[in-house]
Amino acid sequence: MWLQARQTQHPDTTLDIPFMNFTSSRKNDFYSCPVRSRAARSQSGGLLLILASTICLAGSTSSQPLRNGGFEAAATAESWEIEAPDPKGLSFTLDNANVKEGSQALMVAADRLTAVTLRQEVFLPIGTMWRLTGWVKAEVANSTASAPAPRIGIEAQAGDQGLGQLPSKSDEWQQQTVVFRVPSPGRINVALNAFRNQAGKVWFDDIRLERVPETLEKQSVTIQSTRLSKHPIDLKQGGQFIELLCDLIPSMIAQQVESTSFEEEPQWNQAYKREIDKPYRPWYPDGAVHVAKYSFDTNNPFNGKRSQKIELPLANTWAGISQDGFYLESGHSYRLKLHMRSEGDIRVRASLHGDGVVIAPAVSLGGGSKEWRAAEVLLTAGRSAQNATLTIEFEGPGTLWLDRVYLIDTEAVLGLWRPDIVKALKAMNPGIVRFGGTTVEFLDWTELIGSWDARPPIPDEPWGGLQENFVGLEEFIQLAQFIGAEPMICLRWTGKTPEDAAQEVEYFNGGAETKWGALRAANGHREPYHIKYWQIGNEVSGTEYDASLKAFGEAMHRVDPSVKILSSFPSADTLHMAAGTLDYLCPHHYSVGDLNGTEDDLKRLQAEIDRDGQGKNVRVAITEWNTTGGEFGLTRGMLLTLGNALSLSRYQNLMHRYSDLVEIANRSNLVDSFGSGVIDSGPGWLYFTPAYYSQILYQKAAGSFSVKIDSDGSPSTYLQEPDLDAALSADGKILRIYAVNSTGAPRKVTFHLDPQLGSVSGSQDSVLKDLSLNSDSEAMNSRDQPNRVGIEVQQPHLRGSEFEWDFVPFSMTLLELNLAPTKHASPN
């Protein structure tokens, strides 16, 4: 993910705009991930001018949920929020001469090129269908394809839900219409886009939101045997993503010590629930603290910038440090390793205790020395504990320095990873796992190799905090290969050269006789890793980037001709400038609830490949995707809900239909990650978010071919409920139907199978839903309710080539149908 800061420029001043006075308000900085879809709402710098509280609750379908849609209020734009990067030269006027409805309309005037949008936030019932209408009149300069004429639209956290039609005559009143279905969590913004790099005058009037009535009649669909693509659905469409971000990696590993090198850690720059995002587990003085002296010593630390120094002048007295919050399992042995030096003839020991009892008796770490030395012992837990304490202490008189202290369960996978996390990740069968993210562009890859004893903690720019650096590139690669997935490495582009990229490839893929391969062998891994997928840069783009790709690709191919090279953000010139060196174009989709916009982006990428691909089979790798990347604070909780999992499922249906284009897709993120992870974990516990379950179900389609579905439904494709996708196994024996019902009402469908498919001889259905009595789109799992949302599996008795199915509210259903072998049942 990428950083994009936004602040008001003058937080405590009053802005003087003709006809109006606004008091600006400072917003918190936030991160927003750029996307290659028009779904992303622009969040560039500027002033957000709030005129009135605009949140409306629209539980009643008979009332008009919008306030002041006709601009009849005395205040110029009451109940509307105005966003403008430069308020100078703007005016907002109640015009009673140019009116479409009522006695007045709103006129927005700009005497210079600018961007202006008015918004009103409304909550509507999730899954219901609505129509936004409004009258627009404009006299606009600089109206081009990149700066379309004024339009109305619907924005949502999951992505835009539609824009009004482009006016045919901008100087006359014209009505614009948007029909949309309310996505989870029901919060939408009605957006009046007045200017986009334009100047002139725009009038708005009679802006209305009206519920579109729906009949719940049975839908009839026919599943054809016709394949929609030549390529099967790739296992790598279910790829996952690991990055240096907040507690993501610490949540995955068995190393439990917090602040292993006693560094000063800056605060995280972002939050979900700031109060509990990062557990507070400090080292604290213990023992005879009244006679000991504690300090952090920056002179000659072993690791990082400082070490813990403890001076104890008295003989036969013990003092040291402790840390709470350790999860211990009875009978497990925990490897404690630390680095120490000393003055005086001291003895050092370590123990685990809690709840008033000793859990692992004190074990001697030996004496100190003037030079740094490593000490390692096993502490075996005699009982389980949820919140044990580790104590490291020594007997005076003397001085002890401690650095790089860690405690790892000996049953950790590959010596580092939590077994329950690895088991959960392996169950997802992701196909490919990416190591990348924003921090890649701020650090050198050589900081992520070698012994983790010597690797110092690294600043996590721009997110804030420190990464303890126990997981480097080799630890990541070994994990991915252990679970049977392809590792993908995103290498740094900022400030780097093609030679730098080639050296990184040689380190991981070169033989032990090469310069960098020899360093890898010296670091403990003689055989090459044979990493296939390499991405040049994380979320970088532009002319300079495009111009560098050919040289980067050629340098990397000279080291290893077999590697596949992925772009960062592709521009219209990326493929052309790369001159045949790229294998993948790589957008990030962080507004996947905007299915129309996302599909438009895929079509654009296909057109660029057709034009500039030089006949090469260039594919698309969506190396990060989710419903949002920049929604922080408490609203980020939407990513943990059932409703969000349904939005993700609709996107995966779309990717199935574009299997010839989309080979790779890495969902962001894997664990924790300010609430966006599919797994959430803490000391001794974990639970799965609804998105975890949807990912598992969609991986079952790997190797199958998406097939055509004919429907009698009248709404457009992305308004139909349920959203349907069908995938036929390569041998034609299993048909999988994915159905997403995003509404609060059951949906009935009659299925007809093409005779070429054969008939159903057996079936199983897996339904992802709220397992409580009251189905709630916003239901989520938690540590205390880990199974609120989950999968219910049944084996219904379905036979023949025609059957009916009821799809329950707020659910994703996978119907797996065994097809009876007939002479017509072979795939096309």
Would you give an account of this structure?
The chain is mainly beta. The chain has four domains: 14-211, Jelly Rolls (Sandwich); 215-228 and 703-828, Golgi alpha-mannosidase II (Immunoglobulin-like), CATH 2.60.40; 235-250 and 415-679, Glycosidases (TIM Barrel, Alpha-Beta Barrel); 274-409, Jelly Rolls (Sandwich), CATH 2.60.120.260. The protein is built from ten helices and 44 strands. Strands 3, 4, 5, 6, 7, 8, 9, 10, 11 and 12 form a ten-stranded mixed sheet that branches. A nine-stranded mixed sheet has the order 42-41-44-39-38-37-13-40-43, with helices on one face. The longest helix has 18 residues, at 595-612. The protein is globular and about 90 Å long. Residues 2-62 and 824-828 have low confidence and may be disordered.
Topology:
Layout: E1 14-17, E2 20-23, E3 47-50, E4 56-57, E5 81-84, E6 90-95, E7 105-123, E8 129-141, E9 151-156, E10 162-163, E11 174-181, E12 187-211, E13 219-227, E14 240-243, H1 274-277, E15 284-287, E16 293-297, E17 307-312, E18 318-328, E19 333-343, E20 347-354, E21 357-367, E22 373-380, E23 385-395, E24 398-409, H2 419-428, E25 432-436, E26 458-459, E27 466-467, H3 473-482, E28 486-491, H4 498-509, H5 515-522, E29 533-536, H6 543-559, E30 564-566, H7 574-578, E31 584-585, E32 588-589, H8 595-612, E33 619-625, H9 642-657, E34 662-667, E35 679-682, E36 685-688, H10 690-699, E37 705-711, E38 723-728, E39 734-741, E40 747-753, E41 760-770, E42 789-794, E43 802-807, E44 811-819
